């Protein structure tokens, strides 16, 4: 399960790197990894509520990563389509 998640993160990061502007890519990585870091830091607390809150941040981190990757793929497709129609 860990390696599947790691592979998904690597693929998403590569897709975003090639499809997004440098500033947008940096912002996306900052927000995504901040959500994962906050989720991890909250999970260190022994209270049961913190475990639920940690899972919420993990889910939000994955959702944001996958959403921005989808946006990057759509943007790349539109740019490629626009470039092909000009020539």
Write a brief structural summary:
The protein is mainly α and 87 residues long.
Protein topology:
Blueprint (H helix, E strand, L loop, with lengths): L1 H18 L2 H22 L4 H39 L1
Helix pairs in contact: 1-3, 2-3
Describe what this molecule looks like in 3D:
α2 runs antiparallel to α3. With 87 residues, this protein is an all-alpha fold. It contains three helices and no strands. Helices cover 91% and strands 0% of the residues.
Helix-strand makeup class: mainly alpha
The total of helices stands at 3
Ranges where pLDDT stays below 50 over 5 or more residues in a row are: none
- How many strand units? 0
Helix content bin: over 70%
SSE series: HHH
Mean pLDDT comes to 90
Using only C-alpha atoms, the radius of gyration works out to 16 Å
Measure the end-to-end span: 45 Å
Q: Overall 3D geometry?
A: elongated
Residues in β-strands, percent: under 5%
Largest sheet properties: none
Key traits:
mainly alpha; 3 helices; 87 residues
């Amino acid at each position: 399960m860990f390696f599947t998640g790691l592979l998904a993160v690597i693929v998403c990061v590569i897709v975003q790197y090639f499809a997004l502007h440098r500033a947008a890519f940096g912002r996306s990585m900052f927000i995504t990894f901040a959500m994962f870091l906050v989720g991890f830091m909250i999970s260190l607390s022994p209270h049961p509520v913190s475990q639920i809150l940690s899972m919420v941040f993990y889910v939000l981190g994955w959702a944001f990563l996958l959403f921005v990757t989808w946006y990057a793929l759509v943007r790349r497709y539109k740019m490629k389509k626009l470039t092909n129609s000009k020539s």
